[in-house]
User: What shape does this take?
Amino acid sequence: MSELTIYEVKSCSACRNLAALLAERGIEYTGVEYHETGLDAETIRDLLAKAELGPRDVLRSREPLVAELGLLEEGVSDDELIAALAEHPRLLQRPIAVRGDRALLARPVERVFELLGD
Assistant: This one.
């Protein structure tokens, strides 16, 4: 069985709810505090591919910086969005759960069980 990894931010309520849910079920995971460690563009591309998502799907569109940077404007490429996510990790939706070659945005947090239900 592949290890479960959660890309999280400890101050995020959804991340805390996911951690509590997994603890309640006795499921161990490795947490990656990506706001502190950062994520490079290659890692973001890998996560998106595993989740079958595009960068717009994981962009925190209500974050003021998104508007400031003009990321929702027409013509902004996926590469530009990925570069912005790498430069400003807080723009990335969370938590993201990864297990083996699959990933998902755990919203609602119960979605994590989709990765665990072999």
